[in-house]
Structure to design on (1356 residues):
């Protein structure tokens, strides 16, 4: 089908612009860590006992936004290898820290209604992070509508939706969410999504939260239209975890590393050195297409244990949100609502 | 929790009003088959080779509506034992007949957009009929938006949503659907739902379609607010299958049958005869509560093979909708889109 | 098909002999609590803070075995409403108590190999308790074979199997397990199974463990041949939870209670009193068949939230086994191995 | 943990010996298509309307076995892009052709009992081919045991088992299967397994059947001990589909292709030409490790739609086996038994 072909071509084009959903990687791509970038502030923190690093990238102005190719706003990245492992003690610490960081981006009180949105395709394991997390959110808004304010409980009003992806609904995610937002009028939207990373070392061990919403072309499944304060009329907090590296990135990086290695061995200004420098981007992409044919824009690299890992990560995110959204409840009470 | 208790009480109350979602059962409860009811028209048809019976109950006016406790409109019931069995040949016949009957309730053309809604809880097997059917609908609306009208294909515009239930979203299903309808502006809504029946003989072998929408208190999960032309502003077609009998109904019917049996054995006007007639509804409901304690309003009677049966029924409904919505496609082409 | 009919008839016959898998119910059916039965010892204990009652029924000799229609041996029943609710604190207490009770039936040491067997059909929710529990067992036997004894860990050797049901394998569960036992030579077999109860009040809130193995006709799915010390040559511990009441039992109990109620209202020796006493078993079973037609031997009564409840119960059982089988590990370490 | 590390190291070592489960790829690695290899016979056939190619590689003697690093026997490979797409018409043709090819490897009659074994981990999508296929096999052996030979049906005796993987059972698959074979005494074992391929172009569009059984180190999950006529005492037919390429293979192939490309551009005998030739295997594997760190031996490349594709492939295999094992039944009757 013609349309199908057009779509595939677009996807390949997108691979060409080697893309990352993580501000921390966008920052790395611009230059060395110690060189300051105008309009960008980076603050690094560590929680040593579980080797958790927290990096805040604040994009302060248009200049910084252009440099990093990301909108003005705050991006907080938590990295910890234990996230993806079965370690409930470490997970409790990560959950509490993530709740603390979320609290810095949005303050929830009892007069607000929160709408949590689980983006992605529940039937494609690496893309199912959002739907799975939402299925463990403690929703409460209907209790207020049915019974009036539950006495003494001090609950906040939380609602949640798993909209599905365009191939399942025939609608843009944005259309569905805007329709619901117009009708239900939440005070803030929190969207959870699976992301793509440039590095296998970050896959499933990184959580990024940002106050800039979800942007077109983000996510494992390539959303077409953003969910932002501009488009929805209410603030949008984004929570994302890179769950895959696309195969084209792995192939591309392999070539880069091989060429770097060869350069090291060659004498500077030698024939080899020049030749390596002259291999065109076009030639490289040609190679990517040959290696991955006939799949190209549609192959993922995932760890074998991806099903178990996605379950852990979605539980971490759901628990953090439950704690942060219902501060009157104890940690143990919160887990009672998980299934 | 107080609210919880209030909810349970409401549910028990609802059991008291022995309720059916099927017009054909509402008709049966009013009186014998051969006695005409004012304002109600009943037409029966049969397809003999698969023993499929088709009953149309047309409620013509307010009088009929009051008698049957259902809104004015057309209700078509298809009954066939082979629906729940693994019989692809019979299923193809049922699929084609259901598509034909749907066509009598709504005519789709290329200027319309259809929104299919899968009601119910995908995580509760007997309530998952709607979500499962929707996951096999051929959605096409996004193709028009992205590429303009697909040339030569003659496709109609179909979109679909699985909204979840109130306990999962904190929102009324009605709020979600109205929000989407306002934004996406479909020409007609088709809602698929699991129903409750009064009889085990109808469970999983009956499909009801109606042009009157979905009404409060219908369905396995007790929707609170209806999806109707009045509430949404566009026509609403309902497709339902009774997938459970609630346990209270079974217990109630057991008592009734036992009492009828005893009456037959007793002499008329005897002491026993009077006593049986005098057992109050209150005493009967007291017994129901004792038998089912501590579950009461929350126990279902289901056949053991319910998982396989729900899969078959949702495939039948999805295939019928795909055929009826995309008349330019062949039966075999349609099944290509099923997963 | 003829064979199918024969099978259904057998199943109806089985309903006639109103059957229970629980020794505690077999005891109740024999007579009042305070009347001693020869050859049967009953010891009751309570853990008050979570309202957990522990009943040991010891069948001491052939006389007791005949009275209760169960083999000689120890049957321990733990009953607690919180089992089926989402209450992790209560579950930790139940897990530890169950581990303690299991330890009284079998002592595991490092020279033994344990084989855990998850009976039942993983695709039928109420029958999936065994398969789900086994999927959370910490298996270790292969580590010894591959690497020699893991140093310092003090692990015991545990293996596990989910054999499937006869309709899936074409083999008796007994054939599969005996084949594996002959080859792998475990020191003890522990079999986990979903049971049928006579009472909704016990469904999903009762765990029975016994040192007498699994017997023909037990379980939701009607095993045909037992797993016992006699048949397998090694001791067999059985762990079971009643997860359903069959619909025929509910209907039967409804009639019984109604008749008892009517008797109370009638004068003794009156016409009614006699008539009620004279309703034959045959007449009652005829009624059951009419009420449940066309399903009869194949209808279950389950609570709506059965999927979530089975998950909780299987986690409780798996955690207890993990604690009891790996005493050198901490509770928190054990949960690390759960997925 | 030490053992864990040892295991990972072994896995990396295995990547070093770039390995394929497909005889057709082993053949390709030995040399050009048109150069004959002693002891190896290759016959190619095509079914044009669905572009299905069938390649038989017969390894005739020890010499051929050594050359291809595969045991003596027949290997039949069917390749067709439509396998992985949703095309029921093409699938019916593939199903019938596969049944025909299977019939050439094993003739089943009514005095035989067949045991189908579904290898792999049902919880890891690309490894779940075997378990999913087995769940759609028409098992019949128990009908003979319970009712005697079903009259007039002309059924063959089929049994099936999903043994799980070593990490789930603590037992070698071989131990479980040998135990069952010793007890149940089938005439032939047919084992279904997910394989690894060297090429993305073969992933999910290739089925290999062979009369040589399943060998150590085959499959996505690295079985340790083979299932062969030698080890089990009965003939073993293997059916496999490559469902993944491991990430190390993709990275390795990328380097190879890049180096080949550079060689073409360099003058022969030039400095670059020599340098490229001198890059050691060791240096290449070092690069693989860096690119894939920290995952290395545990990263798969899969297409995004893997869940749907595995479902299609397992249905194709199950249908072929059902047709071939029950020749007295019609194609449409066979599909009645699928769920």
């Amino acid at each position: 089908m013609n349309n199908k072909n057009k779509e595939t071509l677009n996807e390949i084009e997108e691979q060409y612009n080697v893309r990352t959903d993580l501000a921390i990687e966008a920052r790395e791509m611009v230059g060395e860590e110690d060189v300051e970038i105008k309009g960008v502030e980076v603050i690094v923190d560590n929680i040593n006992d579980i080797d958790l690093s927290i990096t805040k990238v604040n994009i302060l102005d248009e200049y910084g936004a252009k440099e990093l190719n990301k909108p003005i706003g705050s991006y907080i990245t938590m990295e910890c290898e234990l996230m993806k492992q079965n370690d409930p003690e470490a997970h409790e610490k990560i959950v509490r820290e993530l709740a603390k960081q979320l609290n810095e981006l949005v303050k929830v009180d009892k007069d607000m209604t929160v709408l949590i949105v689980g983006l992605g395709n529940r039937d494609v394991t690496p893309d199912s992070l959002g739907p799975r997390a939402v299925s463990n959110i403690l929703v409460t808004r209907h209790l207020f509508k049915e019974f009036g304010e539950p006495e003494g409980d001090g609950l906040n009003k939380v609602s949640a939706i798993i909209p599905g992806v365009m191939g399942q609904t025939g609608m843009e995610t944005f259309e569905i969410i805007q329709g619901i937002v117009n009708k239900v009028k939440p005070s803030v939207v929190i969207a959870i999504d699976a992301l793509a990373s440039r590095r296998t070392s970050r896959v499933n061990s990184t959580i990024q939260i940002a106050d800039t919403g979800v942007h077109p072309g983000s996510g494992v499944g390539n959303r077409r239209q953003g969910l932002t304060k501009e488009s929805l009329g209410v603030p949008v907090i984004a929570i994302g975890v890179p769950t895959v590296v696309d195969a084209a990135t792995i192939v591309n990086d392999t070539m880069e590393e091989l060429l770097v290695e060869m350069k090291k061995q060659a004498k500077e200004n030698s024939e080899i050195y020049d030749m390596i420098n002259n291999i065109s981007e076009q030639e490289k992409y040609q190679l990517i297409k040959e290696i991955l044919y006939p799949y190209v824009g549609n192959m993922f690299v995932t760890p074998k244990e991806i099903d178990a890992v996605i379950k852990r990560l979605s539980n971490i995110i759901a628990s953090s949100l439950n704690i942060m959204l219902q501060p009157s409840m104890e940690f143990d009470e919160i887990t009672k609502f998980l299934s």
